[in-house]
Amino acid sequence: ALRALKGDRKRLSTIASREWIEDNTKVTIPANKRNYRKQKDHVKVMNTMKALKKQLGEEVKEGRPKGSGTAEQTVREWQESHPAGKKADCIRETGLSKPTVYKWWK
Fold this sequence. Notes:
It is flat and about 55 Å long.
């Protein structure tokens, strides 16, 4: 159903409200949780709340957890232990995605 919608982009952009897409494709799309604010205003409110929480000393999750490492490290370690190894072998053995392995391969 989504492929059919993608084929007719002009029509989709003019009539495709969230409700219309749900009715015609049987795909549920939840409403946004911004309390009817525009995205710009919502981001401003949320950034202010985050700054206030930091100021009060509350824990605020930001970015990658400290010490979690990156896929780069995994690929490098695999390459060191398998000098004649191929990208496909690295993908199979590490379980990383193909684009990730290609990104960090040297």
